[in-house]
Design brief:
Three copies of one chain form a homotrimer. With 337 residues, chain A is of the alpha+beta class. The first copy, chain A, is 20% helix and 19% strand. The first copy, chain A, contains nine helices and 13 strands. In chain A, strand 1 and strand 2 form a beta hairpin. The relative contact order of chain A is 0.16. Chains A, B, C: One of its GO terms (cellular component) is extracellular space. Chains A, B, C: InterPro entries: Fibrinogen-like_C, Fibrinogen_a/b/g_C_1, Fibrinogen_a/b/g_C_dom. Chains A, B, C: Keywords: Calcium, Disulfide bond, Lectin, Metal-binding, Signal.
């Protein structure tokens, strides 16, 4: 018995070691140091069979999106559910059933596995083939049906599930979650670096999802001129605000954009294409490689990657064009509704 | 209401943008411009719950192949089904339940992600390790149990499921489907560049599947002499004919082969090994890298890749040794029965 | 009928061709030449529907580990089962239900796809980014939630399932199984190169699994001094013994370690980190790259890889620092209980 209590103590101590991103600033609560985190963690390591059977029984529900799960079956709990594509392919993903009415399906995450890699293995949202003008689309994953990763590794690896192309949606929600934070903590609001959603049903105008939107606005090198871009959609904040969004990017970047938007397919001075400017709209100057993510297959040689040049003036340096460490070391989770 | 009608109009317009491969010749119908395509597409974006439940209920059937699904349960509809390996591993794939009596299981697709890549990331049917004589088998996927991809991405990425090694079959069927064409359109006959099957039960002589066949005929650099090859099996056409097969490869290649066959494990002048010559049998001259696919880990330096040297005289150039653009930009779907 | 008998004969002949690793020494029985192998193989190629339904019905059991499957449902047969993570993610893996009381969950395998690759594609347990001191953790898979591979390809590719981080365990079991041996033969004792397990519940002290253990002892370049290491745990042999363990590594390596242990996170002279020394504890001299597996992202340039420098004095050469061919061409299967 004493042994068990000692083990429990060791267990609690080891929580200290579960550091995810180092968070240098005091703006962000270190969620791993909260009592709520410790309690959830403690509960989670033991098997709760009642709960386990409950989540397994979710497999009897048939739907193509979390919105349909909420509407048809009144599912109201955040977590992992089963979805089916129109063709009958079964997969599992995370549903946010609470934010702004719920019904949000996680369809993808963009994760920078190494800010030093230049379109190398792991850069699935730009290119794994090296910086190469002969491959202007790079891996092409913004506009194909390839999938990768799993829902539980969405904060430690790139993730894309069939919902990305299969679901017909109206709005998007975006969560920036610190790398490696386990799924069971994602919905603690304090855990997020930034969270927002759109409300104007813009996806109806662009084919119903990002797969279709990026067919209209290809994420491709040399497809347009510097400053060309796709839609910039106003956002509603769920965690953070315009001012905190501004501060997440570098001081030099802040002069170029307006916060309060999500922008699709931006093109920079070198004619490189980026997929998403999260939280901002480029307005003057187009050094978008420092604050937009994803891309085609060719950039300035030192910039190719999933978070192209977020470390231009040193990683997490808060200097010049460098994005903050919080932003650089957080995965970008993309939801549809 | 007017809004909805306008959106519908935008939706229909955007069908134009769903171009897959550019098809320069008039031989091939552009399936995306047909009325049938537009109607299927329109229906598909809305969720039909009755249909969704039907395809999910397919999970109660237990079988190791589509042939068993057809025989035991009289399943007659083309589409995505659940299969189980002899060891109990569950997976999903596409069944062709109509061609020549049906019961065909999709077990793999060979997709060229970049004709410019030389055994780089994405060349899973040759090598992702660079052109390397120290790795004569390359990735070795023709004769191992590794799997990759998903059924819905089989025209946009390499695909291999457990059926490749688990199913004991007699015949093969091959579909060349334009890159990125969605699964729900694969069975439109006009969509295919080429389709054929064998009828002589040749796989009984080679262990029952490609996994076993390629153990007898290794897809390995330097394993044999120029001109050595495995079996060449006569085919029955389901779309196309001998003459259209000939025209799909380059003018110089046409002098070297006889159409109307599928040939396994060809060896070229440089002692490089290829896995499948689709639609043809090499007869005189062995520049098979221009019309055979898949391979070991070492080729002439400019040729290593899943479609080794289909672009020798310019991509889709219809010149010299270059295969046609239709062939080069189509995935090769492999079925067993 | 005669035809069928002939085919059967061809089928039996082809068993000869199913060579996996060449096994040069007489210490190891070539399992593929045994009568038991031939019989299992013969049975396996035909579909046994009763058996197929039985393994599919395992999906109704709900548990987080094979130990729970054995305890709650009295499952006693080795094979493939369904497990569910605490968050509800469903996956399949292999359960060893017999060794030392059973209840062992396969959570990972370490497979060397090419002893000549130097942290290239396929080196998921070290780095796929090249030998790079800027990426001291390499791919980081020893301490993240990424998963890859499938249970049936665990002897032909790297494998990691959610159990690696989700299961709270006490002991480990390790099987060295010749590359490419099919799952249906893994539990033939004679098939293994080496098999052992721990009995002292050491994982209770290190967070309950390798995911937590390697947070305390990071598999990272330059994280400690030569000779630093994590725990070395005594093992109980299930196949092999201390002497046979010694002989599996090179003559020079044998002077440096003591057999009869599994050791975690060893550091060599060049400050490179390795994850597991299987069967041994380094005692004097720290050329651990010749007998420990997995690693961070930076090694001596000629050594980076999943089995870092097992071929130092020629592959399978039994000379100097070279590990035996049996060891180098066997996958390392990791189980929890």
């Amino acid at each position: 018995m004493l042994h068990n209590i000692l083990l429990l103590f060791v267990g609690l101590l080891s929580l200290e070691h579960v550091s995810f991103a180092e968070v240098p600033s005091s703006q962000i609560v270190n969620i791993t140091e909260t009592r709520e985190y410790a309690e959830r963690m403690q509960n989670f390591s033991r098997t709760n069979f009642e709960r386990l059977e409950k989540v397994r029984n979710r497999s009897i529900r048939v739907a193509r999106s979390c919105k349909e799960l909420r509407g048809r079956y009144d599912e109201r709990e955040d977590g992992v559910y089963y979805l089916t594509t129109g063709n009958g392919m079964l997969y599992q993903t995370y549903c946010d059933m609470t934010t702004a009415g719920g019904g949000w399906t996680l369809v993808a995450s963009v994760h920078e596995n190494s800010i030093y890699g230049r379109c190398t293995v792991g850069d699935r949202w730009s290119s794994q083939q090296g910086n190469n003008a002969d491959l202007p689309d790079g891996d092409g994953n913004w506009s194909n049906r390839n999938t990768f990763g799993t829902v539980e590794s969405a904060t430690s690896d790139d993730f894309k599930n069939p919902g990305y192309y299969d679901i017909t949606a109206e709005d998007m929600s975006v969560w920036h979650i610190p790398n490696n934070l386990p799924l069971e903590f994602w919905n603690l609001e304090a855990a997020a670096v930034l969270r927002y959603h759109t409300e104007n049903r813009f996806l109806r105008l662009y084919g119903g999802n990002l797969f279709q939107l990026f067919k209209q606005y290809p994420v491709r090198y040399n497809v347009g001129s510097c400053g060309d871009r796709g839609p910039a959609i106003p956002i509603v904040y769920d965690h953070g605000d315009k001012e905190s969004t501004r501060m997440l990017y570098g001081p030099s970047s802040r002069r170029e954009f307006e916060p309060g938007f999500i922008t699709f397919r931006a093109i920079n001075y070198e004619r490189a294409a980026m997929a998403i400017c999260s939280g901002v709209k480029p307005t003057v100057g187009y050094n978008t490689e420092h604050y937009c993510i994803g891309g085609g297959g060719y950039f300035h040689p030192e910039q190719c990657g999933d978070f192209p040049s977020f470390d231009y003036d040193r990683l997490g340096g808060y200097q010049g064009w460098s994005a903050s460490r919080e932003m650089t070391e957080a995965a970008v989770l993309l939801f549809y509704r």
